[in-house]
Amino acid sequence: LLVNGSEGIAVAMATKCPPHNLGEVVDGLLAVIAEQFEEGPELTFERLEKLVPGPDFPTGGIICGRSGCIQALKTGRGTVTMRGKAEIEKMENSSRERIVFTEIPFQVNKARLLERIAQLVGEKRLDGISDLRDESDRDGMRIVIEVKRDAMAEIVLNGLFQLTPLQSTYSINMLSIVDGQPMTLNMRQMLDNFLGFRREIVTKRCRFELKEATSRFHIIAGLVTALDDIDRVITTIRASASTEDARNRLMSLEFTKALKLDLLLSSPTEQESTWQEQGFAKLDQEQATAILE
User: Fold this and answer.
1) Percent of the chain scored above 90 by pLDDT?
2) What secondary structure letter does DSSP report for 148?
3) Whole-prediction pTM
4) In a 3-state reduction of DSSP, which class is residue 206?
5) Residue 258 scores a pLDDT above 70
6) Mean pLDDT across 215-235
7) What are the DSSP E strand ranges found in 57-180?
8) Do 191 and 35 meet the contact criterion of CB atoms below 8 Å apart?
């Protein structure tokens, strides 16, 4: 949610979470973990702000001012002003200047942006522009706006910011579903909830793997027990009239040699503990079935 961002509306509730830098978010998570395990200093808001200073938009651009970012980090709500990244260059063999945009605000469509600039020039609402072209290639974005000889590039640039989406705002509203309830979370709450989620997932995974390993050990204990007295097991199976009869006969056998196995001395399950107490091993239905298979 933090790294990719998300926005939408449902049941009269809207969310608009901007994308953040992966490395910065990870640094923030590590700081939260260190604080929780008392391995690092207290994670104050000032320190968190330095680790995760604000959104990191994939199209680049510049965020004007820090107040909107700070408010969003503290409360989960805020408004940031974005601008395209522009440079004013001198044109070759000429005294004229050109404005070159290498980054544009988040969610601004480049083709529509160029149409909007051309429309404003045609309506004479934006003066001082002699040419407009898109020189973007696989190396990156490059929107070139050539300025007329008698115009000032800085004034044209201000007009572009004022009249086009090259300056736009992004309203942050980090509404999230927490345990089935919609809540507006600040940055620290976002990180805490993610760590809680990961802790739950890792715990479930470990318990599942432990259950699988315990189940496998249970079968192995039965197989090793049978292997230790394999002649009697084979004789019992051959003397049985059916698979069900063989299973019941195996479950009735008492294996005294199995108690000498180092594998079973650690008694990882209740069954092996019972074997130790009674002085012999007895197979259950699951183990007998595994031997027959």
Assistant:
1) 73
2) P
3) 0.75
4) helix
5) no
6) 90
7) 62-64, 77-83, 85-90, 97-103, 129-134, 143-147, 167-173, 175-178
8) no
